[in-house]
Each structure stands twice: as C-alpha cells, then as structure tokens.
Recover the amino acids of this structure.
C-alpha cells in the first residue's frame, strides 16, 4: 500500500537540514544502564525484528530495497532470521521512536528490535531518554537532476527560470523550492507526485527539464546515466553536506547496539554497503 505524503514529511526532514558528518568508525556514547539479555532474547527467538518505513524508495518498497538488504546482513551477523516490520510514519520522529523502538504502536504491533533510517542528528539524539541512535550508514542530500546541456548549467536557483521542474510538494525538496526566493518558482513546479523517484522518471521521459528530491531517489532512477547530472540543491536553506541516517534501539540495549555497530563497520570495510547501494544505482561513500 502506498503511503501518501503529508505535512509531517516536511517537518521530519526539516529536522535534518543541519546535517551530521557520517562516521562509521567513530566511538559511540553508550548508555550506562544496560540490558544484557537483549541479544540473548533475540537469539532465543531466532529472529531480528527490524522496523522499516513503508514506501520509502529506494530504501523500502514492498519488502525490498536498501534498508531491507542491510537488515538482512544485520540478521546474518547475529546468526538469526530477519523479520521485517513495515510501518507508516507518524507525525514526527518522536512518534516513530516511541511506536517502533521503546513502547509499541497503539494499533497493537511493535516495538521492533531496531528501527532503520533514523536521523543521526545531535539535537534529536541528545533529547532521547528511551532510545539510542547510532551506526550511520548513509549520507543523504537534497538534490537536483537535469540532462547535461539542457539546461546548460545550474549553479543557483535563478538558472531554473522558465524551466519545468518536477518535485513532490510534500517533501523537504518541495518545501524548499516552493518557498525559495519568495515563491519565484511556484508556477514552474509540477508537485503532484509522491516522491523524488516519480520526479526523476518525468525527467527521464523528457516531460520536465529538472527533477528535485533526495539524491538517493534521483540516483535510483537515473542509475548513473551519463546524460544526466545530480547535484546538491543550490540553496542556502538546504544542507549541501547532507545528513546521516542510521538506526535506533532501546536505550539500554547496548549489547545489541554494539553488535549492530560492528556489523555496519564490517559491511563498510568489506564493500557490502557499496554493493547494496550500487544495486539500486545509488553511490555510497563515508564522508
């Protein structure tokens, strides 16, 4: 089932604008209170329950995607099977952490053992009493894509003048473009789509001159086609350096967090992360 975007998408992604440096080898500040049986409980059950967002291409769509592939490797590292728990995002990140990490959803499912695709954002992390956020595995950016030579170049938003631009309206990319330069580009924007992958498909078909969205969305459609260029959105309000996404567990499940961090580190070192992202056409690299 496709989850339609709404205003909470903007509020969620707006939290990420400051960006966080992606460091897979850095030390984590573990909580003092531990739950030493977290790993034992998972191994006794024989499965790792991983919460993934519904319909978040290219990370999860219908049981497949980057987050699913990473979750499979995490379960393998623990010596158990993978059990996916797809869910629809709440109004904000706090809702998702409560519903999927430490308390459970009011609809009667959850919590999971681990939640994927959590912003590794210091203000968010510092405000958490119930969850531990760690193990960044990707750096996302808000981006533009265009066919090389048409337009000749995009160095700032003024270069979008008179061009057709596809962007999902209820996303960070849409919010930024709709409000840029006092709304100067509103009439050029096609916004009635669900996400950046649909915008990229319109670019690929020739229906628009430019597509905007998350870099992962655009790259997953264009797949390195040399006819196109994907660049960070040239706007002061967008974090050109991007933001990191990682995962979250209960605050005191530090034994589980250590094992998952080690698994991510190993995947980074041996090239598995690079391969998983490359399967979806998305470049990967620690920054």
């Amino acid at each position: 089932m496709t989850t339609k975007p709404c205003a909470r998408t903007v509020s969620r992604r707006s939290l990420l604008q400051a960006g966080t440096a992606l460091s897979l080898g850095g030390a984590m500040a573990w909580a003092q209170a531990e739950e030493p049986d977290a790993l034992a409980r998972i191994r006794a059950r024989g499965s790792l329950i991983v919460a993934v967002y519904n319909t978040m291409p290219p990370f999860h769509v219908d049981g497949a995607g980057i987050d699913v592939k990473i979750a499979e490797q995490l379960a393998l590292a623990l010596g158990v099977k993978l059990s996916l728990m797809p869910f629809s995002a709440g109004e904000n990140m706090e809702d998702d952490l409560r519903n999927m990490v430490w308390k459970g959803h009011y609809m009667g499912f959850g919590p999971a053992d681990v939640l994927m695709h959590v912003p590794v954002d210091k203000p968010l992390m510092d405000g958490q009493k119930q969850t531990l956020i760690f193990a960044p595995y990707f750096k996302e950016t808000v981006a533009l894509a265009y066919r090389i030579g048409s337009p000749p170049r995009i160095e700032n938003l003024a270069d979008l003048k008179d061009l057709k631009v596809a962007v999902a309206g209820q996303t960070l990319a849409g919010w930024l473009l709709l409000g840029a330069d006092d709304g100067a580009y509103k009439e050029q924007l096609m916004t009635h789509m669900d996400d950046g992958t649909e915008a990229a498909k319109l670019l690929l078909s020739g229906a628009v001159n430019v597509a905007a969205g998350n870099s992962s969305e655009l790259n997953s459609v264009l797949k390195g086609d040399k006819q196109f260029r994907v660049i960070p959105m040239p706007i002061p309000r967008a974090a050109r350096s991007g933001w990191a996404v990682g995962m979250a567990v209960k605050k005191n499940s530090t034994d589980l967090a250590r094992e998952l961090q080690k698994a991510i580190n190993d995947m980074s070192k041996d090239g598995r992360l690079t391969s998983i992202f490359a399967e979806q056409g998305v470049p990967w690299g620690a920054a």
